[in-house]
Structure formats: C-alpha cells, structure tokens
Amino acid sequence: LAATADDAPSIDNICLAEARRAEIQHGIPEGLMQSITRVESGRKTVTGEYMPWTWTLNDSGEGLFFDTRQAAFDYLQAAVDAGDHSVDVGCMQVNTKWHMDGFFELADMLDPVQNADYAASFLLDLFAAHQSWDGAVKHYHSSDPA
Quick one: 68 exposed, middle or buried, by C-beta within 10 A (0-12, 13-18, 19+)? Predict the structure, then answer.
C-alpha cells in the first residue's frame, strides 16, 4: 500500500517515531529512547501530556521550542558563531560541545533521523561502558563521551 500524508507522523510525534525506529534498528530496549525524548525535548501540550518537540534547543539551561526547523537552526548557528559551544539540539537533545563532530554539518543535528541515530549509537557506547541500560541513561547527559 502507498503511504498517504495521513500516514506520516505529525510534527508532534516525529521524535517518538524516530526514537522507536532507532530503538528497533540499533537493538535498544523498547521505550527507552522514547522516554528519553519525552524528557529531553518534551513540552506540555494543551491536554497536559508531555510530548517531544522536534525543533527544541536548550541553551544555558533554557528550553527553547521553535515553530520551524529554520528558526531553530538560525538560533543554533548564531549561538555557535557567538562562541556558545554547548547547546542541546533536537529530539534527543544531542549536545554540540561533545557531539557536533559526529555530524557532517551543524544543520544535521536538527534532522530527527540523524539525531536519533546518533543518540542511539551514543547510548550503545554508554551501555558498553556502564554494563547496564540504567547506567547508560544516567550518563546520557553527564559524561564526557571521549
């Protein structure tokens, strides 16, 4: 069957869809990355539920939710150009200071597919280092990946 526009994930659940795809593709326990994206890029919806938002940045502890990819990228580029090298980016809030070199270009960090795949690879590295998924999650934003 051909996919229709109705089959495509809405902007509200692209992060969840990509987190689930990455879990399957990389062999990560079901729900783990989906939980991380809800926490990392989540914002409260009108129904009171926390849902991840694709165009989310966190700069100096302030969560920033942009309406478009371009608006998020413009802010991100300006921050990096100004010397702010520690911005959390996208669905999985991948940090520019530690992980920017894992992407071909800065804009790729905002791509939900690349963001989720990078986060999955990082989680697998953390799992190997800490020998548990609990340890991997605890170190997701609190360890130097080098």
Answer: exposed
pLDDT in tens, 78-91: 999 999 779 999 99
What does the radius of gyration of the chain's CA atoms come to, in whole angstroms?
15
Task: Give the angle 120-122-127 at the CA atoms, nearest 5°.
Answer: 90
Angle, CA of 129, 94 and 23, to the nearest 5°: 65
Confidence (pTM): 0.87
Give the whole-angstrom CA distance, residue 60 versus residue 66.
16
Cα 146 from Cα 134, distance rounded (Å): 20
Tell me if residue 70 falls in helix, strand or coil.
helix
CB-CB contact of 29 with 23 (8 Å): yes
